[in-house]
Amino acid sequence: MSDWYRDFANSGFGATITKQLGLPRPVELRRYEPGQPLLPGPAVVGSAGQGRLRQQLTALLIDAGVTVSSPEADGERLAAVLLDATGLTGPADLAAAHALLAPAVKRLAPSGRVLVLADPPADADSPAQAAARQALEGLVRSLAKELRAGATANLVLVPAGAEDGLAGPVRFFLSGRAAYVDGQVLTLTPATVPAGQDEDRPLAGRTAVVTGAARGIGAAIARVLSRDGAHVVLVDVPAAGESLAAVANEVGGTAVAMDITAPDAGPRLARQLVARHGGADVVVHNAGITRDKLLVNMDADRWNAVLAVNLQAQLDLTQALLDTAGALKAGARVVSVSSQSGIAGNRGQTNYAASKAGIIGMVRAWAPAFAERGATVNAVAPGFIVTEMTAGMPLGTREIGARLNSLQQGGLPVDVAETIAWLAQPASAGVNGQVVRVCGQSLVGA
């Protein structure tokens, strides 16, 4: 999708005007294409304290074909900077983080990546160690707001025993899949991670279900999952049957016209998945509606409709899949679409924000039970994503919404889809009960 302001700001005349007026100058982000290298240039790997991950990170990069440059090298533009901060013992060790990052970030190329890895503060041995670990969150979130030219910074917390799950998240955050994921904190959990994943088709041989798949973000999710090798079962309401069939034909998937709020929807879908596909490997709860109104003016029908589609249907469908033998295969991945509104709130959207916040609570509560089955359940929380709906907004409202993030532009449906597809991969076994914001580090909310 074209971004007229971004194109203008990067033209000769536009660049001059935006610089003089101090206006944002967004750039075209590096997005994923099958077959492209993990990084378009060299990376630096350093540590603060006696970190335990530096050797593993270096080997991972070399195995992916990335040239690992010395932190002391001068002049060479860097595609990524990785900091192993698992050795922090107290605030004094943070000086080593500054010593590595300050000069390396100056060499960061457009759409570069900064990735910091550390232990969770809750696992610290002392208040001083907990303080140092927590300080990294402030460092990374602030650095993400300082970076320009499409570069991002993120933090991955790796508790002892979770090292085997590191490769999937590292590859995601460094790749073009994470183009619109910025300033985020992800916590891994110990898990058994299958070996030998095909990075170009990580979902080959798997069946994925996507609700709300007839258009917009849902259709983008179906396309990306199909591209990654999955057979996609696309679910949407009967009224969207024509567009649903069109997307299903495009991706070679199966269309299922169904009202997911119907009392029998969950058991019926579960039985169909078992009978026709031998169960599901991936379930994406994307279906959602809005019925915006100020709370004092909102009638019960608006409130109930949004909660029924956006939250209760996810609970009921997931429970039915859990209760039906064979409906969820071993190592299944369930991904729910929440929203930035569920984290930060939004005027006129008490019903929508309540439903999307409820999804976060659902995912966190279900994570231990899913882990016992060798499965995962996570959520993505999109920010301002450019869709047909946002195209209908007044120009001023749309442009303000699109620029109020560290990347100074709206995201695309494919950005949400790429994050979901990553969470659906076998290599994401160590990511469970997490909420990943796909918002370009929105300046609204945490």
Automatic annotation (TrEMBL):
<dbReference type="GO" id="GO:0016616">
    <property type="term" value="F:oxidoreductase activity, acting on the CH-OH group of donors, NAD or NADP as acceptor"/>
</dbReference>
<dbReference type="Pfam" id="PF13561">
    <property type="entry name" value="adh_short_C2"/>
</dbReference>
<feature type="domain" description="Ketoreductase">
    <location>
        <begin position="206"/>
        <end position="388"/>
    </location>
</feature>
<protein>
    <submittedName>
        <fullName>3-oxoacyl-ACP reductase</fullName>
    </submittedName>
</protein>
<dbReference type="InterPro" id="IPR057326">
    <property type="entry name" value="KR_dom"/>
</dbReference>
<comment type="similarity">
    <text>Belongs to the short-chain dehydrogenases/reductases (SDR) family.</text>
</comment>
<dbReference type="InterPro" id="IPR020904">
    <property type="entry name" value="Sc_DH/Rdtase_CS"/>
</dbReference>
<dbReference type="InterPro" id="IPR036291">
    <property type="entry name" value="NAD(P)-bd_dom_sf"/>
</dbReference>
<dbReference type="InterPro" id="IPR002347">
    <property type="entry name" value="SDR_fam"/>
</dbReference>
